[in-house]
Design goal:
The complex is a heterodimer of chains A (about 300) and B (about 300). Chain A is an all-alpha fold and about 300 residues long. Chain A folds into 2 domains: about 55 residues, no CATH class; about 220 residues, MetI-like (MetI-like fold, Orthogonal Bundle), CATH 1.10.3720.10. In chain A, helix 7 crosses helix 10, helix 10 packs antiparallel against helix 12 and helix 11 packs antiparallel against helix 12. Chain A is globular. Chain B has 11 helices and no strands. In chain B, helix 6 packs across helix 7 and helix 7 runs antiparallel to helix 9. The chains are: A mainly alpha (about 300), B mainly alpha (about 300). The interface between A and B is large, with 53 and 48 residues.
């Protein structure tokens, strides 16, 4: 709710007059005013907000100021692409980060750990759009294995879909995987020093069982708390990655709408992404309670 | 946070104090000394210092004017004349990268300064006053902090319009919460120290206590954040410029150079590679410096990884 007001205000306070931009700078003032009235931009801000919000909850975000295409439909059209990319990237990030993090923690201080941390530092210090360009160079330009941009929907042709999906997803996933790997390593190291791990070992449990059953489960808790923040990075990264790979998702739509000064789209895009972000964080909080039984009775302790 | 905090390994070699000096060196001197002894920190310091010098002396170092177009020399490969080749308008890439360092530095420093001043003052005041004011201010910063950075950057670019200055403002706002948090934490630990009580007893004014007595003492950990914040700022500026929401042409920002190079990946692969290497070098240097500073400042952090 609060963030919706924020999103609305932010966009409406933009200097520059959408009506004027739409009609053209040399159009007569009467024509500009007519357009402004037809867009509802002549009303006071709170009235505009209530109208916008009332329609927004019904999925109606108005029409694109540029081509009069209904924004709600546009968002619905772009949404699956972003979700597909995000889910695939998150999956990849998990698949990469868990084994690496566990190995790094178990071999802490060793060569393997060192190599992993150097690789992580490299990927965390390299902008993802540049890595994406390197991938395009290698896999599309030189090896000609993958298409450099575009998207084929998954249900239409899974194989070709995968070939368009893989590069953006990897680009998006790797920095997130590296950050997550660091958390897993730190969290697991902390847990491995606890008394109950020593007890488990003393009982004669195999190392594998100790790590999988006892350590990893407990190490998971702090990892889940950062999952929501990671998802934020994912959304932010998606904006860049979608633009880079010509992925027809919400992020690219958002960037294009700013360049075109198409407010209706910018607002809807931002509101959608922010809502998604807020909901995922809520889900993470709930998940947190499920995983850590201690929190169920402990009421407001975080 | 580290595993070794509770059970330090026995074979760790602690650095021996060099000489016993009669007067204790200040914390700043100690920190710099420790930073230089740390491999990672030294590497970071060298890289960052190098890029700062490059940015400062850009006009003398760059072989050409970064926006001068050499006709008939478009997209040439690296050669003796153009060490890193030229772009689609025949501009020397090396010169553009050298001037690009300037843009990254200016945005980074300005954004960090803006973010640090606002963040630190609100954090200190929040910590000092406590209660409702504290809660409200810190909730606001929590919200900003949780917000995905580039989305906020985009929102701000949407309000203020695309451009380098506005990108800097966005980056600055995004960096405020972390300074506020650290300053507040520093305030909470320093607040009840004897020197503060003494100052208060002597009737020193509130603001004077906060900014003249407490701030210098709480400043050390904030230094790490400054290095990290610079990295974040450089990263975000590059990202926004890449999207076309930061530096506008013909300014030679690294991010926008990468964006423009996309069209010529086949013809001129060096075009896209060179500015990316520059960004990565800067970011990795800043991160290493931040890690080194953290180790140097944290007395519980034991040498080694």
């Amino acid at each position: 709710m609060l963030s919706s007001i924020l999103v609305f205000l932010i966009i409406r306070l933009v200097p520059g007059d959408p009506a004027r931009t739409l009609v053209g700078y040399d159009a007569p003032i009467e024509e500009v005013d007519a357009v402004r009235v037809s867009l509802g931009l002549d009303q006071p801000l709170p009235v505009q907000y209530v109208h916008w919000m009332g329609r927004a909850v019904r999925g109606d975000f108005g029409k694109s100021l540029i081509n009069r295409f209904p924004v709600g439909e546009l968002v619905a059209l772009k949404f699956p692409a972003t979700v597909e990319l995000a889910i695939f990237a998150l999956l990849l990030a998990t698949l990469i980060s868990i084994p690496l993090g566990v190995v790094a923690a178990l071999k802490a201080g060793g060569t393997t750990d060192y190599v992993i941390s150097v690789v992580a530092a490299f990927f965390l210090g390299t902008p993802n759009f540049w890595l994406g360009i390197l991938y395009i160079m290698i896999f599309s330009v030189f090896l000609r294995l993958l298409p450099p941009s575009g998207r084929v929907p998954f249900l239409q042709d899974p194989l070709r879909a995968l070939s368009t999906l893989i590069m953006p997803a990897v680009t998006l996933a790797i920095p997130i995987a590296m950050a997550q790997m660091r958390f897993i390593r730190a969290s697991l190291l902390e847990v491995l020093n606890q008394d109950y791990i020593r007890t488990a070992r003393a009982k004669g449990l195999s190392n594998r069982l100790v790590v999988v059953r006892h350590a990893f489960r407990n190490a998971l808790i702090p990892i889940i708390t950062v999952l929501g923040i990671q998802f934020g990075h994912l959304l932010g990264g998606a904006v860049i990655v979608e633009s880079l790979f010509g992925w027809p998702g919400l992020g690219r739509m958002l960037v294009e709408s700013i360049t075109n000064r198409d407010y209706a789209i910018t607002q809807a895009g931002l509101l959608y992404l922010v809502t998604l972000f807020v909901f995922v964080n809520l889900a993470v909080d709930l998940l947190y309670i499920i995983i850590d039984p201690r929190l169920r009775s402990g009421a407001s302790r975080r | 946070m580290t595993n070794s905090a509770e059970t330090p390994p026995l074979n760790v070699k602690r650095p021996q104090p060099r000489t016993i000096v009669s007067s204790t060196p200040s914390i700043t001197v100690l920190t710099i000394r420790r930073l230089l002894r740390n491999n990672l920190g030294r590497l970071g310091l060298i890289v960052v210092a190098f890029l700062i010098l490059v940015g400062l002396f850009a006009p003398w170092l760059a072989p050409y004017d970064p926006i001068q177009q050499h006709e008939g020399m478009e997209l040439t490969a690296p050669s003796a004349q153009f060490l890193l080749g030229t772009d689609e308008l025949g501009r020397d890439l090396l010169s553009r990268i050298i001037y690009g360092a300037r843009i990254s530095l200016v945005v980074g420093v300005a954004a960090v300064a803006f973010g640090a001043v606002v963040g630190i003052s609100t954090g200190l005041l929040a910590g000092y006053s406590g209660g409702w004011g504290d809660a409200i201010v810190m909730r606001i910063w929590d919200t900003v902090m949780a917000f995905p950075g580039i989305l906020l950057g985009i929102a701000i670019a949407a309000i203020l319009g695309p451009g380098l200055f506005n990108a800097g403002i966005a980056v600055g706002i995004l960096s405020m919460p972390s300074y506020a948090r650290m300053a507040r934490a520093g305030m909470l630990t320093e607040q009840n120290r004897d020197y503060v009580i003494a100052a208060r007893a002597m009737g020193t004014g509130r603001l004077r206590i906060i900014f003249q007595h407490i701030l210098p003492n709480a400043l050390a950990p904030i230094l790490t954040q400054v290095a990290l914040g610079m990295a974040g700022a450089v990263f975000l500026e590059a990202g926004m410029s890449f999207l076309g929401l930061g530096a506008q042409p013909p300014r030679p920002s690294w991010g926008s150079m990468i964006a423009q190079s996309r069209a010529y990946l086949r013809l001129a692969p060096w075009y896209g590679i060179a500015p990316g290497v520059a960004i990565s070098l800067f970011l990795i240097g800043l991160n290493a410096l931040a890690d080194g500073l953290r180790d140097a400042l944290d007395p519980t952090h034991i040498e080694g990884k």
